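Q: How would the structure tokens look for this protein?
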Amino acid sequence: MKKIVVAFTGPSNSGKTTLITKLSNYLKEQNFKICIVKHDPKDKAVFDTVGKDSYKFSQTGADVAVVSPNKTTLFKQETSSLNEIISLFNQFDYLFIEGLKTIPLPRIAIFRNNIDDEYFKYCSAVASDDTINSEIISKHCDSLDLNNLDEIISWIDKNGKKV
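A: Here is the predicted structure in token form.
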């Protein structure tokens, strides 16, 4: 297993989820194991249905695992560190993290239509499309073509954190 971790950041609707989905599908076709962590900074994601047993269990404040033949879902009543997440997933080739910009990881900022300089201090590379003037991209970041998955994967293989 490669066990490479890389994070993605950028403004809302910049294409983070789309890129991570494309990368995941592309790499899975090549038989790599992919894990993804999505940051929910406003704590608004809902993963269970009101009234179901697992919802009732999680409402007690206990940590709950729902295990079925094809998946395991963990409801934990506190946030997790990167090391805890890595140990939960254990076996993977690539772990993609969307958000969590304060965790010190190699990070690709995604930009379409406009650039927010605020993200430069968190990123190691910028993936953008032809709506962005590449001369504007900070000289501190590598420049990647948002639509070139091979180029992005090559960057991740070279610069991602090996764990």
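The radius of gyration is 17 Å.

Strands lie at 4-9, 34-38, 64-67, 72-75, 94-98, 107-111, 125-128, 142-145, 161-162.

Upvote if useful.
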